[in-house]
Design brief:
single chain; mainly alpha; MetI-like fold; 2 domains; two-stranded antiparallel ribbon; 2 strands; globular
């Protein structure tokens, strides 16, 4: 075999294997930070630790978790939190984006200021909102603790107990601390949603809007029948993003309410932290982590399926 043919064969093998070698560092990183923790969590969810060490318990951790009273309460609190968090974030984001899309004066300055909540960490946002309503030195303490406004002794956001639920077993209306948590999370998530919707609104063809106005459509009709249907895929992606971040976030809860008063703001993500690190029940915490992961995967698959359906409609 001639040297030229041998070198060509060697070069051909190198060219074929080059993509694998280039992807190998990323694949190893994913193996370390994704695959191994996932497999370890699955194994841990079937284990229980006692004086003798780890022992296999099968699905007992899932059964004990589901029968736990705090689990049912946390599911209800998570639903209440997500419904109001998503509704306020999407409504506020759409209104803000629509106003900014009308090219008002100083819109560039407003967009710059809009980035402020986004660049702050969840820990700082939670601590900042806690300082606003702290009983002794909060900015709004004088207003909230006025008995004339909130009889009989004023309103302490961080310690007030939840009102009597309208539906037995379902935590609604929530405690005032839950409203504080919802406002803090909404304020933190609003810039991302606003910029996402603003970009989608700016992609709406101006000819379509002008044609609808010539036909006699008012602002509300333009928004309802033109703008919203065209930006709906973007809004769905934003909704699922807000849900995922809201359900998995724990830093704002940790620094704003600490899950209290009592368990009034202990949604599933904070319950996971409480079971794993406060009670040192890692098996049940791993079981809860898998349940939350399954919900996350369901939301991601729903988002992907919806966007594919919308792309198919656009192509038709």
């Amino acid at each position: 075999m001639s040297p030229n043919i041998h070198s060509l064969k060697k070069q051909s093998w190198f060219d074929k294997s080059l993509p694998v070698w280039l992807l190998l560092p990323t694949m190893l990183a994913l193996l370390v930070v994704q695959v191994y923790p996932t497999l370890y969590t699955i194994w841990l969810s079937t284990q229980e630790h006692d004086a003798a060490g780890w022992k296999f318990v099968g699905l007992d951790n899932f059964e004990r978790l589901i029968t736990l009273n705090q689990f049912g309460e946390s599911v209800g609190l998570t639903i209440v939190f997500l419904v109001f968090h998503v509704a306020l974030t999407m409504l506020g984001g759409f209104i803000t984006a629509f106003l900014l899309s009308r090219k008002i004066r100083f819109s560039g300055l407003f967009i710059t200021l809009l980035f402020i909540p986004w660049v702050l960490s969840h820990v700082i946002v939670g601590f900042m909102f806690r300082l606003m309503v702290a009983p002794d030195y909060g900015v709004f303490t004088g207003y909230l603790m006025d008995p004339a406004r909130f009889p009989p002794n004023g309103l302490s956001i961080l310690t007030a107990v939840p009102p009597k639920p309208w539906i037995p077993g379902f935590p609604f209306p929530p405690a005032p601390a839950m409203w504080l948590l919802i406002l803090a999370s909404t304020w933190r998530a609003l810039p991302f949603v606003t910029l996402l919707i603003l970009a989608a609104i700016q992609m709406v063809p101006a000819e379509v809007v002008e044609s609808s106005r010539i036909d006699g459509a008012n602002n509300w009709q333009v928004i309802r029948h033109i703008v919203v249907p065209l930006i709906l895929p973007t809004m769905v992606v934003a909704i699922f993003n807000v849900i995922l971040n809201g359900m998995n976030g724990v830093a704002i809860i940790f620094t704003s309410t600490g899950g209290g008063p009592g368990t009034a703001t202990q949604i599933l993500s904070y319950l996971l932290y409480s079971i794993g690190w406060s009670r040192i029940q890692f098996g049940r915490a791993a079981a809860l982590a898998l349940i939350i992961a399954l919900v996350n995967w369901a939301l991601i698959l729903a988002t992907l399926r919806f966007t594919k359906i919308e792309e198919g409609h656009d192509q038709v």
